[in-house]
Amino acid sequence: RRARRTRRAAARAEGAKARAYTLRSPALASPLCLSAGGFSPPSVVLGREGEKNDVGVDCDVVSGRHVELKVERRSSRLVATDLGSTNGSAIRRAKGGGAFAALGGGDMAMEPGVAYELRDGDTLVLATRAMLKVSAAAAGAAEAASEASAPPAVKTAAPMFGFSKKKAGVPAEEEEAPASKPAFGLKPPQAAKAAEKRPSKPMFGFGKAAEEAAQEAAQGVGSDTTGEALAQAGALLGALGKGMADAGSKGAEALRRAQQEREAEREA
User: What is the rounded radius of gyration, in angstroms, for the C-alpha atoms of the chain?
Assistant: First the structure.
């Protein structure tokens, strides 16, 4: 009797410490975690996939709503209740014992509507085919183990500062290089057309040459001869400015002479 009491006390203490439980089975899509607190649900209904239940079991002989699993809030025990399934449920204890009728191979049958405790190491058998292994752990440990066993999600990092990432599988030298901005804010074809539309008004013999140089410079934008064409255009424009200055001084001299002649005519 003392030994039984000791085992029961140890079981109650173990249940009080183990507040989270994880059930694993090939018939489940992922490990099932239950706990009295935290983010895991305290109770779920298991049944055949495609039916009205909380967790689907991949087994044809399992009923649509086969069994309910619940973690008691006060004792933190995990209990299972058969919901009147067609092919029944059973518990396979990790260590022998119990006053339930044995089905065979140590499985203990579960009566419908009666709650049975599941302990660490036990196996919940659904319809004699779906085996759910029970493991108990401290609060949070079972949830962490369930997340660790799940396949990691692939995350795609967003590009930083607006720069897009390289195309996968494409060598760097084959990627399209960004188009460089042409000088003066115009693309080469647009610059050439703008130069062609400008009217030709030669001044002092330099206008035509300057215009031709400007056209060559516009056509050479984005090529290797851009610098040379711009230098020629600058030299011609400088000469044009000098010619205009000389013409201005000559015009001023002619105007001064005309005024002197008019004054002489008035005095005469």
Answer: 47
At the topology level, CATH places domain 2-149 in Tumour Suppressor Smad4 (2.60.200)
Contact 24, 135 (CB under 8 A): yes
Name the token pair of 224: 């290797």
Q: Which has the closest alpha carbon to 42: 17, 73, 16, 14?
A: 73
Residues 232 and 51: their CA atoms lie apart, in Å, by 85
More confident position, 83 or 76:
83
C-alpha 71, offset from chain centre = 36
First to last CA, the chain: 157
Judged on CB neighbours under 10 Å (0-12, 13-18, 19+), 199 is exposed
What is the residue extent of each domain of the chain? 2-149, 183-267
Strand order in the sheet with 32-35: 32-35, 20-24, 130-137, 123-126, 89-92, 107-109, 102-104
Length of the chain: 268
User: If 0-12 CB within 10 Å is exposed, 13-18 middle and 19+ buried, where does residue 15 land?
Assistant: buried
Cβ atoms of 143 and 33 closer than 8 Å? yes
Query: What's the pLDDT band for 10 if we cut at 50, 70, 90?
Result: low
| DSSP tally for the chain: helices H, then strands E | 5, 12
pTM for the structure as a whole: 0.46
